[in-house]
Specification:
Length: 458
Amino acid sequence: MAAARIVIENCAVATVDAHDTEYASGHVVVADNRIESVGAGPAPAQLDGVVRRIDGSGHLVTPGLVNTHHHFYQWITRGLATDHHLFDWLVALYPTWARIDEPMVRAAARGSLAMMARGGVTTAMDHHYVYPRGAGDLSGAIIGAAAGTGVRFTLARGSMDRGESDGGLPPDFAVESLEGALAATEETIDTYHDASFGAMTQIAVAPCSPFSVSTELLKQAAELARRKEVRLHTHGSETVEEEKFCEELFGMGPTDYFESTGWLGSDVWMAHCVHMKDSDIAAFARTGTGVAHCPSSNARLAAGIARVPDMLAAGVPVGLGVDGTASNESGELHTELRNALLINRLGAHREAALNARQALRLGTYGGAQVLGRADQIGSIEAGKLADLVLWKLDTLAHASIADPVVALVFGAAAPVTLSLVDGKAVVEDNHLITVDEDAIARETRDEARRLARIAARD
């Protein structure tokens, strides 16, 4: 059977390939779920099996955005503890989070995914680490929500086993046992992980953080991940308080502690990495450890400015993350393109920190790198998966900016005319077509109110 082809032409193209190839007016041809060709000018006229031909005049096509760090459940606790730094924020919210259940998590996942997808995210991830006893099948609910939205997805199956009585931050009833966390994580991998090219669902092993996880869980989780050949994810070096915590408890900084537990390597990526010394960056570069940069959340929690330009110069893989919507209420990734560029210019490198194309690379190819999928997604190249976004740049918001990549990154959030995931449309004319946005809004509002009532009662 001949391939079904989608042709997008007469648009600007930013491929984000190794040479940053761009076309002022070019085309992309999709055959089934793969990119067949990309180039200058219109697509060949005599293509077989064309099911759709799109005139992209006034648009820019890019690879789909890749989100590398999120906590979906936080969608139903947005707007709380708005003037706290990380540790106080966690202490304020953990008692509420510990009351989540399966319907709440499903609704929150649907809300988080819908917000990202409608803004150009084609590959999402969720670091879910709160598994209260008796809460139901939380991992299944999250994975089902991603499948229903139609995005490519990595569930980082998190865990916590260091509660308040052991010197951790979460309440004791919100943590799992060491054995229980490891067993549940392995079961999640066995049930859901797809290692094949083009997989829609993958699993990573993801104990939460040094201040909520025992050393033994970190060590055994790393062994589990490598035995199962999946990736590892956690939080690292987010705040000065975390650095002090590690020094007091373990006698070393976060990076040295992670290395001592087997948590540096090309199969590892960590969220935030704000407070990194030169030696820490060198260790990440030496081992190929990746970073999920979350500029909006880092600002919201007053964590600081991550040294992204220095990481990139050293060769550290860096992607972008939304982070949980209790510390980034907008919940979408375009904001992170812009804020990564602007916030890093407040640091030591000033205006030379990042440019528009580097920011776009962080949100596309960089994200694919840290998720271990750079051979499949993250750039527009023949043979890669057809995860693409067509951004409308001829409206009032962008019409006077001549450079389309600058318009996308520096400008307001651009409407998404078309978003393809695996060659299938997820967004059309700035609206999700896979789910009902209004129904999700009602569902998440109801579940947020129910959680607030339960937390207030308890």
